[in-house]
């Protein structure tokens, strides 16, 4: 800074912890270079009550970086320079915190969730492109949220988002970690939508309910159905045409002996038109005709013949009567 500046506090210049500060005496300004992360540069991009940003953002060719400048005219006192140094220190601290959380989460996810697969960490595309993300929450930290999205080959995919994109309002940022955990509970399944400015909305994921087709009642029995399914498996997509030819010739070459009469029964009972209209899914999912149980023959009641009363000998009866008199 030039001699006209009354501040005796020096700017914390130099490249440290990912934040590079340059004192540009030629252009009477301080230049601050840092990673393109809102959590890191927000102290320099915020507006005051008059709607003026603290620092001017400079154009650069690296989309992964942000560059700001603060003119010396805004650093004319120790208090103002100390304010700048606090912002620089904060940006360096946040850069270190982000790097540590990233290292920790990739290590933990790799060993706890990869299950022998190679973890693949994906990030949302450019904030200017809307996109949708679905997965199970496996990490909800201060700066990152991670959703597990499944396996493809030897890779297990994880969707990474920056948590500042889901926070809303001052209260969320003041209680950041609690707000993130409330929005992304571990183990929950979430549906995320990224809008054209990089903001992300969070909603519970509800799998689409697929209507289960009703089973069609087939006019055939279990044995006939099994024979048709076996024929379908053996002859592929053209099975109906091949079975129709066999029906016309009443000959079943290559068909197991036990199945041939069953296929002929279907021909006799249902006919070619029924076969033509039969869908494969109905053949496999349809219910069969239950066999009609034959009534049990009624058992005849056995006639119980009464045994004739035994007669005492005449001599004994006469003797008994004589005694009674």
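^ structure tokens above, recovered residues below v
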């Amino acid at each position: 800074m030039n001699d006209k500046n009354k501040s005796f506090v020096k700017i914390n210049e130099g490249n440290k912890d990912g934040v590079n500060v340059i004192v540009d005496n030629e252009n009477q300004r301080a230049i601050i270079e840092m990673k393109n992360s809102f959590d890191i540069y927000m102290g320099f991009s915020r507006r005051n009550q008059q709607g003026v940003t603290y620092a001017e953002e400079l154009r650069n060719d690296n989309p992964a970086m942000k560059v700001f400048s603060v003119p010396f005219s805004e650093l004319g006192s120790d208090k103002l320079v100390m304010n700048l140094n606090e912002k620089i220190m904060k940006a360096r601290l946040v850069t270190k915190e982000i790097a540590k959380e990233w290292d920790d989460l990739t290590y933990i996810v790799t060993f706890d969730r990869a299950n022998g697969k190679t973890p693949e960490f994906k990030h949302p595309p450019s904030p200017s492109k809307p996109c949708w993300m679905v997965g199970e929450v496996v990490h909800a930290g201060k700066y990152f949220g991670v959703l597990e999205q499944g396996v493809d080959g030897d890779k297990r995919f994880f969707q990474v988002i920056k948590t500042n994109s889901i926070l809303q309002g001052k209260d969320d940022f003041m209680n950041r970690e609690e707000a993130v955990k409330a929005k992304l509970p571990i183990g929950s399944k979430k549906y995320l939508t990224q809008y054209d400015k990089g903001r992300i909305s969070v909603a519970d994921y509800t799998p689409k309910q697929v209507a289960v087709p009703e089973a069609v009642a087939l006019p055939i029995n279990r044995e006939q159905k099994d024979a048709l399914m076996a024929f379908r498996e053996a002859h592929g997509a053209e099975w109906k045409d091949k079975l129709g030819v066999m029906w016309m010739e009443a000959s079943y070459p290559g068909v197991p002996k036990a199945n041939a009469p069953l296929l002929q029964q279907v021909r006799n009972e249902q006919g070619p038109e029924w076969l033509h209209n039969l869908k494969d899914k109905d053949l496999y999912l349809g219910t069969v005709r239950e066999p009609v149980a034959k009534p049990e023959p009624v058992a005849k009641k056995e006639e119980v013949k009464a045994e004739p009363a035994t007669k005492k000998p005449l001599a004994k009866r006469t003797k008994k009567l004589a005694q009674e008199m």
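Residues 115-204 form one domain.
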